[in-house]
Specification:
Helices cover about 50% and strands about 10% of the residues. About 35% of the residues are buried. The chain binds adenosine-5'-triphosphate and magnesium ion (MG).
Length: about 425
């Protein structure tokens, strides 16, 4: 039976134009894989026998994305498509990138350089599916298998090992036996891969529908290289244990109970790095910096990791103070993390989980009331500013800041005090 994929109109147009000019052109890689799986592809990549200069001549609007690697971005009615010339990767000497890329006229050569069989299929409406390495068979078997000899392919580019686990998590596929054995043997080579490339794959893994697959990265020796803090925490017995088929194992299920948000999923993992707050924060920071995360993500994750173990009573005054200390953006995330931890727990009477669940629920309700009432939670919404204090006769200087903090402390306890009259009166008296 002939397999059919529905190509978007714009992709059809690009393929048609290239073909009319006498070149071969196909949709390739992730978009073909996802279409066959009934998933919506993120983007549509195109592979063609046309050389970059030829692609640029054919299309009105193009961007030189990676001309030396054969990639030109084609703008089709305000949408971008990467069009890449068939290529063979030259020799790999550093476990990272080929010394050179060589263009080829054969589609099969281009498919052969791709990482996994399920990513090495091409499709167009005239030729149908081109599947030289039985990617369809592996989709059927739900497995991730290297194109060619696994060890060779991982020797070429070590990142592929982490990509294997990432695809396994995204697609709920198993990694094929030989591919797995090769990863176990070569995981150490991931040391040579740049932090940015590791970060991208790690985040895709953690934000997938099966983030607990991080366990597989541990088993295969990948995390030992890219995040040893995790292996150390596991060895120290910091993770909660679950019993499965009579065997006790560390549990990563809190990850899938957390929403798909970068900082929350990172914190769900890193909260176990150390029992002690300062150590935990130090390890988290150093890992996130090493993996070159952006400052906003680092800031949010570190705050979650810092405050994840505080105990908070369901008391409005204490909650307002906690929001002030933890931050208005982070507090609701922390609530979600607590809830995820709770949902992931093995519910045991002796852990008095019923009371703890009640407590989280109450905090949530009170938090919503605080927001609804518009209670002042930071200097931004305090009814007086530094200027007001100066106008009221205070000398400009450090004292102003201290005084404002003091007034805020009072307002966090008594929201009804947040009026200009009250606060100025309390300063002057
Ligand atoms: P996603 O949906 O996450 O974008 P994808 O399969 O499109 O998945 P990309 O990283 O966008 O993954 O890569 C596009 C295609 O390029 C892959 O399907 C694969 O054929 C090829 N590819 C990407 N990275 C590598 C690599 N490191 N080694 C070999 N081939 C690769
Ligand atoms: Mg892609």
């Amino acid at each position: 039976m002939r397999v059919q994929i529905r190509l978007p109109e714009k992709v059809k147009k690009i393929l048609k134009k290239l073909q009319e000019e006498g070149y071969e052109a196909y949709a390739v890689g992730g978009c073909v894989r996802d279409s066959l799986l009934g998933r919506v592809p993120d983007d549509w990549d195109i592979t063609t026998s046309a050389k970059p200069m030829e692609i640029k001549e054919i299309f009105e609007r193009t961007i030189d994305t990676g001309i030396q690697h054969g990639t030109v971005t084609v703008l089709m009615e305000h949408e971008c498509f990467e069009v890449t010339t068939y290529r063979i990767d030259g020799e790999y000497t550093d476990n990272r990138h080929p010394k050179e890329v060589v263009f080829t006229s054969k589609l099969k050569e281009d498919l052969r350089r791709r990482d996994f069989t399920i990513n090495a299929m091409a499709y167009n409406e005239t030729q149908g599916m081109v599947d030289e390495f039985d990617g369809m068979g592996d989709l059927e078997k739900k497995q991730i298998r290297c194109v060619g000899m696994a060890e060779e392919r991982f020797e070429e580019d070590a990142l592929r090992m982490l990509r294997a686990v990432r695809f396994s998590a995204q697609l709920s596929f198993q990694i094929e036996k030989n591919t797995k054995m090769a990863i176990k043997k070569l995981s150490e080579n991931l040391r040579k891969i740049s932090a940015e490339r590791i970060q991208t794959e790690l985040i895709k893994l953690l934000l997938s529908s099966n983030p607990e697959t991080i366990q597989e990265a541990v088993n295969l020796g990948i995390t030992r290289v890219v995040m040893p803090e995790l292996d150390n925490a596991l060895e120290a017995g910091n993770f909660p244990m679950h019993t499965m088929n009579g065997i006790q194992r560390p549990c990563f299920c809190v990850l899938s109970h957390c929403e798909k948000e970068k900082s929350m999923r990172l914190a769900a993992l890193m909260q176990y790095f150390d029992e002690e707050e300062e150590e935990r924060v130090k390890k988290t920071k150093s890992l996130l910096k090493r993996l070159k995360f952006d400052n906003h993500t680092i800031e949010k994750t570190v705050r979650l990791v810092r405050f994840c173990k505080i105990s908070l009573k369901a008391d409005k005054r204490l909650i307002r103070k906690a929001i002030h200390t933890i931050g208005e953006e982070i507090f609701p995330m922390l609530l979600k993390l607590w809830k995820a931890n709770f949902d992931a727990e093995e519910k045991k009477e002796e852990n008095n989980w019923k009371e703890r669940q009640d407590n989280i629920r109450k905090i949530q309700t009170l938090y919503e009331e605080i927001l609804k009432d518009g209670d002042c939670l930071s200097l931004k919404t305090l009814a007086v500013t530094g200027n007001d204090l100066i106008e009221a006769g205070m000398k400009p200087g450090k004292e102003i800041g201290l005084k404002l903090e003091q007034l805020l402390e009072d307002v966090l306890e008594h929201p009804e005090h947040n009026t200009r009259e009250y606060l100025l009166y309390s300063v002057l008296s």
